[in-house]
Amino acid sequence: MSSEARLFQICYDAQTRAEVDADFEPLENAASERPDWFEYWPIRGYLRNATLEEGTFYGFFSPRFYAKTHLRGAQVHEFLRSVDAADVVTFSPHPCHSACFINVFEQGEAFYPGIARTVAAFLREVDPAFDPDTFVTHSRNTVFSNYFVARPPFWRRWLDLCERLVAHAESPASPLHAELIFRHEYRKEGGPAMPVQRKVFALERLVSYLLHVDRVKVVNYPPFSFPLSERFVGHLPELAELDRLKLAFCDTGDPRHLYAYAALRGEVLRGAYGQMDPTTAG
Question: Structure pTM?
Fold first, then answer.
């Protein structure tokens, strides 16, 4: 089944505008009213104001899409043309971080302490039946950097969920307000540290929750074809096995898969980070 696709690359200035992939459409964000929301704000504006075609895929990528995935726009379009009746297609980078953490919340907590508690509190309000403590993510439902493509019904569901988080972040009366605007130090590869509010990292992880609870057909671009973080180079076989163990647990419910996962991931993380295990530090 061949699908129409409209894929956008967000640009902030003359440099990022000039670097927009020829097979993506530019999505202007130079005059953003809310730069504190980063890429979410132009995506939000487009989804709220554009007339979406129901059978069309839409995707919104940051200027660093190629750096994180080594994919060009033409390759994304080609892959989408091969997809049969999917609702969502993921192009999630950092497969090492997907594999080495039990879920996207634990991964966030390792680098931005406090985020797991904040997201858990938000999702318990949204979905009282959801238990973040037993949530397992893997290559089929992990999305980092909002690198996914979807048809309009899923985008509307995503936007509704994100707007509920926005409401908490924007309201000083909300019990989550202070947590969501807490500033973490964020450092791009090779760049200086910059303060980023927790709400940005929390919002990025909501799509993985939706892929877990929604009955949608998801297709993943082969996740282990993406570059590994430098610390994990040389550990591809172990990373693939970690992902397999999480998938096996989710498919069978057999806790022995998680026992094996815990033992192997401890070895991998110690090899990547030395004596400092990011799942226990801080």
Answer: 0.93
Task: Report which of 49, 8, 48, 13 is spatially closest to residue 29, judged by C-alpha positions.
Answer: 13
Distance CA 203, CA 37 (A): 9
- Gap between the Cα atoms of 186 and 193, Å rounded: 5
Q: Where are the domains of the chain?
A: 5-229
Q: Per-residue DSSP letters for the chain?
A: ----EEEEEEE-SHHHHHTS-TTSEEEE-TT-S-GGGTTHHHHHHHHHHS---TT-EEEEE-TTHHHHH---HHHHHHHHHT--S-SEEE----HHHHHSSSSHHHHHHHHSTTHHHHHHHHHHHH-TT--GGG----TTT--STT-EEE-HHHHHHHHHHHHHHHHHHH-TTSTTHHHHT-EEEEE-TTS-EEEEEHHHHHHHTHHHHHHHHS---EEE--GGGSPPPGGGTT-HHHHHHHHHHHHHHHHH--THHHHHHHHHHHHHHHHHHTT--TTT--
Span 1-33, pLDDT tens digits:
447 999 999 999 999 999 999 999 999 999 989
